[in-house]
Amino acid sequence: MVRLFSGYLRRTTLRCIPGINGRSLPRRWQSIVQLGHPRFLHNETSRPENPESASTESDPAEPQTPGPWESYRSNFWDLQQHKPTPAIGYKAGHEVTIHGFIGRRRDVSANLSFCEINNAYDFGPQNGVQIVSSWKDDGSLQFNAHKDLLSIPNFSPVLVIGTLQEPPENAIKPGEPRRWDLKLRSIHCLNPFPKDIIVSKDAVWPPSQRYLQIRFDPLLRDRLRLRSNIQAVISRQLLSKRFIEVETPLLFKSTPEGAREFLVPTRRQGYAYALPQSPQQYKQMLMASGITRYFQFAKCFRDEDHRADRQPEFTQLDIEMAFSNSTDVMRLVSGLIERIFHHLHSRWSPTEINGIQHPVYVGVEQGPKTNKPKKENTTQGFWDRDEGNWAEETEFPEEDQEVSEKKFDIWEGKKRYPKFEFKDIKLMTYTKAMKHFGTDKPDLRINAPYFTNIRGANNIKPPQDFVKKISNFTNPFVECFKVRLGLSPRDAGTFIRKFMDSLPNLTTVKLNPECTPGVFVFDSGQPLNGLSALGHESAERFVEFTETEGSRFDGCKDGDIIIFHARPRTLLQGGSTDIGRLRNAIYHAAVQEGLIPKDNSFHVVWVHQFPLFTPNEDNGDPGQGGTAGFSSTHHPFTAPLTVKDFFCAKDKPFNVKADNYDLVINGVEVGGGSRRIHAARHQDWILRDVLKMTDEGMAQFSHLLEALRAGCPPHAGFAFGFDRLIAVICDVPSVRDVIAFPKNNKGEDQMVGSPAKITPEQQKTYHIFQEPEPESEVAESESKPVAEPEVESKLESESSEVSEPELESTSEPEPEPESKSESEQKSE
Question: What region, left, alpha or beta, does residue 210 occupy, with left being phi > 0 and alpha being psi -120 to 50 degrees?
């Protein structure tokens, strides 16, 4: 009872302790209860023995510079006592508390100032707030608040309390977002912004100050917010379909999957972890574990050449489904894409800046809730090959939040992203994409009336002298396409001549030196319409060919540009052809010159039925460890498309098609997946007999083969390159623009200084750059089997009795001594 009473007395006394100007009293004026919890009188040793010395101390009411502890305690209690008011609850006449950063202050007069404040929690433009500070009487609350505002540096984090007011009608221009005026009552600086950092509207922040770039670049913050929102949208959608989010380890082991890996050394000499290139093997083992629907946003690591769309570490949305086929996965992913673009249409507005469509957050329309009709199913009949259990309705749940009566239209004067539905997604095979678009990542924005698809030119029978001019190959396959820019023949010739002159400097277009493009400009005023190099008969046949309905060339007009190119008569393989890269480059050059309007819509296409195997190229990649001369196009766990393809894998590997699929948006591959090999004997046959992996390489996949052998069900999966997906949606050229702290093109993080040099202590601890042990010691350690501690001690005692010549003679142990040591160990 006494303890309860003392606790109540302590709390009551603390509430009654006065302060001066909002500051705590000095120590000598505080009560014993406030000074310590608990505290006794005989422990108080800080009281001055001389009363006169105490009287000479400064008056407690005089302003003093707070020490580190006083400043920390003041900031802590301010944040504890003054929680921010949610922006959705803003109403005129209400007093609100805002945490955020102040902008530049505008002083109109000695007693009137304006200042913008960026809300730290709600940065939707419809809730913008402007601080209005004015005062009339000296010493009033508004006077002190105005004085505090003048003393706070621009861009400092603050805690502001004031009353919301509707701004004057003439202060808001049409099309501008709604703003509030905040009549300042008090403001407190939480940490002053240094004056030596110069902030301007056009400031360019170096990579070492990436945190300042994020803070002062609203477009970059919007991209990071969009990234977070889309991640939440995907998670909600997958969880609603009974998926389970499972985290897989980041410390893996090195396995030959096709790319170089990052190794993590350990304190155990000669051993290292490998950072995973993807969670591929773990997620397949999860399928054998009974987790039939899995996803995660996984960090992946690949030591690849650094390009604009690559990072040494990147985020991947990993999805795997058991008891499913490729159609099930493609349907699920198509629904995710539809849901993402629905969120983009309803929450974000595209704002064009320097030719880039930046997403700017608008927010949710505030108004009374209505019972919206259920969205009709749009997935039925997308693929005819999978009837019956195919359709699944796509719902768009709204966020649960209370909203007030509608007072304004947040979309007034703003553009919206176009609506997107499931039926807008196209489907084509790899062969069709390579023949008609020259790439396995077709950009469907490059279409009529400006560009035709690529067509074979065998019908026009080009003369051999012309073929020899554009190719050194014997009996090559000649292709062509047409570009219509609406220019006169002279202007069209100027454009294409300028483009061809700049072609050697384009890093994205690397043409085979054995072939040269044949370029023509159609001109009815010239002999043979400007096609004289084709010869009389071929020129006439070409004009007739373009006028046929099957060619889809829509005839020829003055100023049309015709491109011919040749390639060997071999199976299509790889990611693109020369004429495909040339076609894409001409399109982007025409858009840059303003000859073609930029298409900001999203064109989504599935590309499937890739070749299962691809010839190895001398590009420095480690490959998959086989000696067959080819490797898996995707990864060695991809299943063949049909039973016939499976049996042809060994004899005709390049004719085998895979049951895999890539998702392409505006010419960028944003993800890919496949149906997996789920039987251990089939996987073993592909690795050992088809890819010709060695026993050492096979041992690296033993864990996966054991999991497949344990009754693993059929399964298929997909993986989004999440950084690349966000970059495509944000219309930025590099994934670095959608990552908070990216690496540069050298794989360096200049902000923190990584990678860093290894210290001598670290080299010693992790056995890095150390000379290897003598061969005799290595042989001894390799021949010694893994045993229990007692057996190890016996082996050590026996090895000490072996003479030195015997150790030297066994520097390369053979199988017989190893089996002998094992038998001796068992007998012991």
Answer: alpha
First vs last C-alpha separation in the chain = 72
Of 206, 234, 201, 233, residue with least CA distance to 219: 201
- Give pLDDT tens digits for 723-773: 999 999 999 999 999 999 999 988 999 999 999 999 999 999 998 876 655
Higher pLDDT among residues 147 and 363, named by residue: 147
Q: What are the E-state strand segments in 634-742?
A: 660-665, 668-675, 715-721
| CATH code that applies to domain 446-598 | 3.30.1360
What pairs with residue 244 in β-bridges? 294
Question: 222-225: which pairs have CB atoms within 8 A and are 24 or more residues apart?
Answer: 222/358, 222/359, 222/360, 222/361, 223/358, 223/359, 223/726, 223/730, 223/732, 223/737, 223/738, 224/738, 224/740, 225/123, 225/361
From-to residues of CATH 3.30.930.10 in the chain? 222-422+720-738
Task: Quote the distance between the C-alpha of residue 281 and its chain's center.
Answer: 21
* 795 vs 212 pLDDT, higher one: 212
Report phi then psi at 628, rounded to 5.
-80, -10
DSSP per-residue letters across 49-87: S-HHHHHTSPPTTS-----HHHHHHHHHHHHHH-PPPPG
Assign domain 222-422+720-738 to its CATH superfamily: Bira Bifunctional Protein; Domain 2 (3.30.930.10)
76-189 has which CATH code?
A: 2.40.50.140
Tokens representing 658 are 């895979």
| Three-state secondary-structure class, residue 226 | helix
Phi, psi at 135, each rounded to 5°: -150, 160
**Inter-residue contact 331 to 398 (CB < 8 Å):** no
Token reading at 763: 């080299």
Could you tell me the CA-to-CA distances from 469 to 480, 501, 510, 534 in Å, in that order? 15, 18, 19, 11
Residue 746 is encoded by which pair of tokens? 């050298």
> What tokens does 717 get?
């999966």
Contact present, 233 and 340 (Cβ < 8 Å): yes
- Contact between 189 and 117 under an 8 Å Cβ cutoff? The reply is no
Of the candidates 157, 155, 152, 147, the residue with the CA atom closest to the CA atom of residue 190: 157
CA–CA separation, 603 and 598 (whole Å): 13
Spatial separation of the C-alpha atoms in residues 287 and 683, rounded to whole Å:
15
Q: Tell me, what DSSP letter sits at residue 131?
A: E
Nearest to 286 by CA among 722, 721, 708, 686: 708
Q: What is the pLDDT of residues 791-820, one digit of tens each?
A: 344 434 444 443 333 333 333 334 444 444
b/e sequence 367-406, b meaning 16+ C-beta within 10 Å: eeeeeeeeeeebbeebeeeeeeebeeebeeeeeeeeeeee
Which of 490, 558, 563, 551 minimizes the C-alpha distance to 522?
558
Chain-centroid distance, C-alpha 174: 36
List C-alpha distances in Å: 17 to 24, 25, 120, 475, 577.
Answer: 9, 9, 33, 99, 81
Can you tell me the distance from the alpha carbon of 181 to that of 158, in angstroms, rounded to the nearest whole number?
17
Q: Give me the phi and psi of 297, to 5 degrees please.
A: -90, 100
